[in-house]
Structure formats: C-alpha cells, structure tokens
Amino acid sequence: MCGILAVLGCSDDSQTKRVRVLELSRRLKHRGPDWSGLHQHGDCYLAHQRLAIVDPASGDQPLFNEDKSVAVTVNGEIYNHEELRKKLVNHKFRTGSDCDVIAHLYEEYGEDFVDMLDGIFSFVLLDTRDNSYIVARDAIGVASLYIGWGLDGSVWISSEMKGLNDDCEHFECFPPGHLYSSKTGGFRRWYNPPWFSEAIPSVPYDPLVLRRAFENAVIKRLMTDVPFGVLLSGGLDSSLVASITARYLAGTKTAKHWGSQLHSFCVGLENSPDLKAAREVADYLGTVHHEFHFTVQDGIDAIEDVIYHIETYDVTTIRASTPMFLMSRKIKSLGVKMVISGEGSDEIFGGYLYFHKAPNKDEFHHETCRKIKALHQYDCLRANKATSAWGLEARVPFLDKQFINVAMSIDPESKMIKRDEGRIEKWILRRAFDDEEHPYLPKHILYRQKEQFSDGVGYSWIDGLKAHADQHVTNKMMRNASNIFPHNTPMTKEAYYYRMIFERFFPQNSARLTVPGGATVACSTAKAVEWDAAWKNNLDPSGRAALGVHLSAYNAETPLSNMPSQVIDNIPRMIEVPGVAIQS
Q1: Is 272 annotated as a binding-site member?
Q2: What is the number of structural domains in the chain?
Q3: What is the CA radius of gyration of the chain?
Q4: Would you call 2 a catalytic residue per the annotation?
Q5: Cβ burial, residue 308 (10 Å; 0-12/13-18/19+)
Q6: DSSP H/E element including 381
Q7: PANTHER family attached here (predicted)?
Q8: Is 567 contained in some domain?
Q9: Residue 477 maps to a domain
Q10: Does residue 559 carry a pLDDT above 60?
C-alpha cells in the first residue's frame, strides 16, 4: 500500500510549509519506497509515497486529468479500472495506473462516482478550478486513513497517524465507506449495502453462488505487474485463498509475466503444529513454500516497532501483528511486493468461538454486522500496517464488496453452528468448496476445525509477552492505572506495557481516542458478552476466555500443564492470522 498525505487550506503557501509537508510525508516512506511526489496548488499540498504494483514505469503520483486542473493522490487498487476506462471514451489517460480513472470519473460524475470503484482505496482529490476537494475511503476500511484539523483552519489527511499527529489540534480515524467534501464541510456515507441496516436476510443458501462469488473476489486480486504470493497458515481461510489462486493463476496476465508457479509464505514458532499444516496444504497445491521461524524473544524485541507502525495499544491486535510484521520483512527481502491474505472470513461467517453461544439467528447476524463494521480498527489495521511497514501490500478477497453482499444476504440460520447436525463453524463456506470431482482441498483440511489446538505450543508466544510485561509493570503501577490512563484503562500488565509505549509515540488525546475499548470475551463485541452470564466475570480478548463453550467446568486461568489431554484436544484457537502459525 502507498502512503498519502494532504494539507488543504492551510493559509500558507510558503517554502517553509512545503518543506514541512515533505518532512511529514517522509514519515510514510516505508509504505511507498518506489517514488515520492508532491503537488502544490496555492495553500493545498498533495504528497504521495508510492509502492508500484500496477504500471510501475509510468504510474507515479499525484495523478491528473488532461489539463491538470484535477489532481489526485491515491493509496489503493482499483480492480475494475479497465471496465471503467471503457466508460470514459472521451478521456485521455496519462498512465496505465489503475488509479488513473479517479480524476476522470470525477469530471464525468462529480462526487457521486465513488461507489463505482471496485477495490481498496483512500484518496484526496483537489479540483483547482474552485479549490474544492473530496476525500474518500473504501467500503470496509482496508486502506488506513486519518483526518485532522489545524488551528489555522486547515484539513489534514494521512494514511497513518504519524503523518499528522504533531501538527493537528484534533484528529481521528477517517470512517470507512465515507466521503468528506469541502463543499459541505462534513462526511457522508457513500457505502450503503443492504446488510448495513442489520435487517435479517432471507436468501436461501446456495453453495455454488457463494463459491463463485469468492472465486471472483480472488481472481480480480491477481491484477499485478510485480511478483506476488499468498499467506498460508494451514487454516481454512488462507488455504482456500491459496487453492483458488493456484487454480486460476495460469490463465492470467500475471502468469505471463511472472510464471504460474505460486509462492506461499508462513511464519511461526519452531515446531508449531500449524507450520506442519501449512506445509501439507502447500504440498497439495504445489506451491513454492517459504517457511520462516521466529522466537518469542524475536517478537518481544519487535514490540516497540510494531506499536509505532500499527498505531494501536489493543492487546489482541499487537499480539497478532508482531509475527505478521516479522514475516512481511522476510517476504519483501525475497523481492515480493504483494500478498493475498484471508482476513474477514470469521466476521462474515461467525467463525469465532463465542458464536457457538449465539442464542438465535437474529443475534448471530447482528453480531456479524457489528464485527464487519469494526474491522478497520482491528484485522484491517493489522493486515494493512504490518505489511506496509516493509513496503508490502496485502489484498483481502473476503472483504470484496460483491462477495460481502452475497455472503451477508444468506439467511443466517444457515450460518448457525449446530454440531449435533454436523455443522461446525463456517460450515456454509466449507460446503461451498467441497467438490468431489475437482477438490479444492483434501477433505480433512477442508473440514479441519481451525481452532483445534495440538499441544499448547502457540500459547508460549502470549505467555512470553505476559512474562515480559510483568518485568516492566509493577503492582503499584497497576493500582494507579485508572489515574494515569482514565480512558480505556488497561486492566492487565500486558495492556499497561503496550499503552506506555503507545503514549510515548503518540501522546495526544486524539491518538488514544482512535483505539477502541470496551468489554470483550474472545474477540467479541461488548453486546455479545451478554450471551453468556459467565463471560461477564471472565473478560479477555483471547480464546481461553470462551472455553466454557466446550467444557463449562474448565477455568480459563488453568495452566495447560495441569489439564488432561482430552481437555487440551478441545481447546479452540480463536484467531487465524493468514500465514502466521501461532495461536492466540
């Protein structure tokens, strides 16, 4: 993903201001190491740090219309750009970049063109004819974006918080699926799918419709002019992404340039059972598999860098981001610039453990809607920034607009987990890809419960983090936590440790307000905590907190070493981070 920075209406067109904008733009250079660009028109500045994926030779930014009266700085990929170009027959394009269509669409349709874009994006468009501008972010918030306001009346836009936090009086996350217009001075939501109202859908489940929708989502993300690969952890979601990519790669333009041999990547603690699962899937699909190992100490040593780049103090996000951060550096060192990943499936299909406790299909559906709407604060934040820290782009087909519309229109009764009927979590996704004649995956992999935990090896990562935090945060510090951190007060030493690091990098009140909080059990929303009275006394973001789903007598604090083997064999893992072979 690229990095964008814009300062709009700053009442200062001096060389000093230009130098400052360049200085701040360089804070985003890790996102786009291939080229830097800056366009100034009066007191408006558009800066760009480019990661070249499509048309590396001529697609440098900012981009313009024919007479350069409209300028755009964009971070993202527009998968339907060729189709859109056909609608713009009277326009001349300066580059082959997929983002080149944006300025021309604005000329034809005004501010109402954003919903025509199929892709992930954040952009700032400046119309120099009347000095107006618009800012927009993709539907789910895959591309990170922040907005801030200066005391001089200026509006600031940045792909990351570090691009504006020192210069704005107030700043916040730019809401996904929204557009900000200088003409109205406010936001409006451009993304209005049927599921957003959370009304209960009633479309019958059709496995072939769901299968084709996801295949299309993966295929369109093969648009690239540079080497790419897939993240493969051995779980269901990443394995399906890898299988579809391997199946359809041969017939694409990408294969003509880079060959049809797919590369897959996985990182994990040495001897993790999931590393073995990823190898098994890679062997079945015939990918060139790259396996990276890290130690608990490697992860601990990277924590400060992770928090600086991910820009959060959320415990679960930091735990999951660290191995992905380490893996991304290894992948980039191999010359790969784009990977396809499996984020979003658990939110859409109710794959988290606590969904076992959903009391009815209405509550099940409402929770999936809430989870999708919050993805930009959690998994999207992690996938975008952990990879962008090393100039690597992550694409997420489960969060394709069309696929979400199909998946979220299905009667949620079909998504409900009913083990007595043989319906495990994400059953409808597994069933959609259960093809006897042309199997996508072996049966035991397709129906493997992704949360199955072998021998507790994955917990050493989290236990190591907790032990490290315990060395740096005292009981006395915890007693005063609510006075030091009155907003989102850390409840554990691990959370306190992350918060201290975050506040050192981002001390502003606006910064701490960008991070969500509230009660959660096993990654649930606060509302879902109400599903089980026992959860209210055992709030924790990890999967251990919801183990009562399988064994009500199990205490979530019981050490693994004190559990019988039959209990360990039923411990569910809560989060599949594509390409990361550890458990949460």
Answers
A1: no
A2: 2
A3: 23
A4: yes
A5: middle
A6: helix 379-388
A7: ASPARAGINE SYNTHETASE (PTHR11772), ASPARAGINE SYNTHETASE [GLUTAMINE-HYDROLYZING] 1 (PTHR11772:SF48)
A8: no
A9: yes
A10: no
Distance from C-alpha of 579 to C-alpha of 584, rounded to nearest angstrom: 14
Q: What is the mean pLDDT of residues 262-272?
A: 91
Same domain membership, residue 166 and residue 56 = yes
341 has binding-site annotation: yes
Domain of residue 459, residue span: 196-538
Tens of pLDDT along 425-434? 999 999 999 9
202 and 187 fall within a common domain:
no
Same structural domain, 398 and 475: yes
**Prior bond of 176 cis (ω within 30°):** no
**Angle between helical axes of 296-310 and 379-388 (0-180°, round to 10):** 100
Average pLDDT over all residues of the chain: 89
What one-character DSSP code corresponds to residue 200?
P
- To the question of whether residue 539 is assigned a binding role by annotation, the answer is no
Q: Which of 2, 10, 44, 369 is catalytic?
A: 2
Helix, strand, coil share of the chain (percent; to 5): 45, 15, 40
Read off the CATH number of the domain in which 159 is found. Answer: 3.60.20.10
Q: What is the mean pLDDT of residues 22-49?
A: 93
Tell me, yes or no, whether 364 and 496 share the same domain.
Answer: yes
Residue 583 pLDDT level (bands cut at 50, 70, 90)? low
Over 50: is that where the pLDDT of 74 sits?
A: yes
Buried (b) or exposed (e) across 314-332, using 16+ Cβ within 10 A?
bbbbbbbbbbbbbbbbbbb
Q: Is the pLDDT of residue 50 over 90?
A: no
CA 86, 91, 92, 97 dihedral sign is negative
Long-range Cβ contacts of 330-333 (<8 Å, 24+ apart): 330/265, 330/267, 330/290, 330/292, 331/229, 331/265, 331/290, 331/390, 331/392, 332/390, 332/391, 332/392
- Is 342 annotated as belonging to a binding site? yes
CA angle, residues 114, 116, 119, in degrees to nearest 5 = 85
**Any binding-site annotation on 243?**
no
CATH of the domain at 281: 3.40.50.620
Question: Tens digits of per-residue pLDDT, 178-197?
Answer: 999 999 999 999 999 999 99
